[in-house]
Inverse folding.
């Protein structure tokens, strides 16, 4: 089975003792994939060819020349990464700094699973590859395996947008689009290990690709050949986000709502059929739904009959929004509560994290009060 990546050897990663282990890390990761039976194709821009030298042993390289615009990164586009794939052969997209623990015949088992489904795998965050004590990272997909011909329309549409390896949102938007053509399956084995580091993207880039992803998913929800039930549900929820945040002074609010939708969508649909390839057994479903039960019951009561949320008049939509339960504080838990921060940082670092969290509380409280004041001015209770 072929794994697609862009493995540039020069990284900075510090272990628990402050030693830079980045020079060896990518090589170790690629060898771990090969040891598990995978072939590896690393795609790069032509300008990086001399910097890579002889590259990593046993890795196939593809160099492309692209004009991606001033806002783009130096990494290759997904149009280049996904070009010329054998349509009937399962392939995987994987982040270059993910280590794969040794797992007997893992490539063969993953390939068999990806023959008829799109496979989602999350990484496990660890302090270092030497100390494998961590937690599953659910806010992204670090290995996505699929058979191109099964989700060909999603790939064709996806590669028309400016997604690149390493940018945010591709691992939210692409699996959601793929789910409209083939089932999502979660492989929940703790195989992928990731040496924890700071995020490699900034807020401006995150919000830019949120808006790109909104356009992409809106188009996919109306595309021919999709699963009609899932497509209608996706379109309904995208329309709900647009209605909920219509007239908002903060243009970023819809992006957070879209992130919550796409992450939950991937979790719910993939966890309905969760597998362990190591023990070769199905895992029980998580029981998660696309909405909290309270909201589901509320919508069912309000929208019984032939009326749908999309066709509701503005006054009716406002009444629905007014009665919906809202999560006032979105986003990740406070930084100081992360086990890694509280147990592996100096007292000064923990104090600084706590002060940062305090600032987030003040800002969130201010936004909460502003939102409630704005709703009162609009006539909502």
């Amino acid at each position: 089975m072929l794994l697609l990546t862009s493995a540039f050897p020069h990284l900075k990663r510090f272990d628990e003792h402050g030693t830079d282990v980045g020079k060896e890390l990518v090589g170790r990761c690629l060898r771990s994939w090969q040891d598990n039976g995978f072939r590896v194709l690393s795609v790069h821009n032509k300008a990086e060819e001399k910097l890579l030298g002889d590259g990593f042993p046993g890795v196939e390289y593809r160099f492309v020349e692209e004009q991606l615009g001033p806002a783009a990164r130096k990494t290759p586009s997904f149009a280049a990464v996904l070009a010329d794939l054998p349509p009937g052969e399962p392939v995987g997209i994987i982040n270059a700094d993910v280590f794969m623990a040794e797992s007997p015949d893992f490539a063969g088992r993953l390939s068999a699973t990806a023959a008829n489904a799109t496979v989602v795998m999350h990484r496990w965050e660890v302090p270092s590859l030497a100390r494998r004590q961590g937690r599953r990272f659910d806010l992204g997909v670090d290995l996505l395996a699929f058979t191109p011909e099964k989700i060909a329309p999603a790939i064709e549409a996806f590669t028309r947008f400016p997604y690149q390896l390493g940018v945010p949102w591709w691992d939210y938007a692409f699996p959601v689009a793929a789910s409209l053509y083939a089932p999502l399956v979660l492989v929940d084995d703790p195989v992928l290990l990731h040496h924890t580091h700071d995020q490699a993207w900034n807020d401006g880039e995150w919000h830019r690709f949120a808006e790109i992803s909104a356009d992409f998913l809106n188009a996919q929800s109306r595309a021919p050949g999709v699963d009609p039930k899932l497509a209608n549900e996706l379109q309904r929820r995208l329309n709900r986000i647009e209605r909920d945040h219509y007239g908002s002074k903060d243009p970023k609010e819809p992006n957070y709502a879209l992130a919550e939708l796409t992450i939950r969508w991937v979790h719910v649909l993939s966890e309905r059929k969760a597998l362990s390839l190591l023990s070769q057994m199905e895992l029980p479903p998580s029981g998660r739904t696309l909405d909290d039960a309270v909201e589901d019951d509320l919508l069912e009561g309000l929208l019984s009959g032939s009326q749908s949320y999309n066709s509701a008049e503005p006054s009716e939509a406002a009444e629905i929004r007014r009665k919906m339960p809202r999560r006032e504080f979105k986003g990740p838990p406070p930084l100081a509560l992360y086990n890694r921060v509280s147990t592996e940082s100096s007292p000064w670092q923990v104090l600084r994290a706590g002060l940062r969290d305090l600032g987030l509380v003040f800002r969130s409280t201010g936004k909460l009060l502003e939102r409630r004041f704005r709703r009162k001015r609009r006539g909502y209770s």
Summary: The two ends are 57 Å apart (CA to CA). Confidence is low (pLDDT under 50) at residues 292-318, 320-341. Residues 332-381 form one domain.
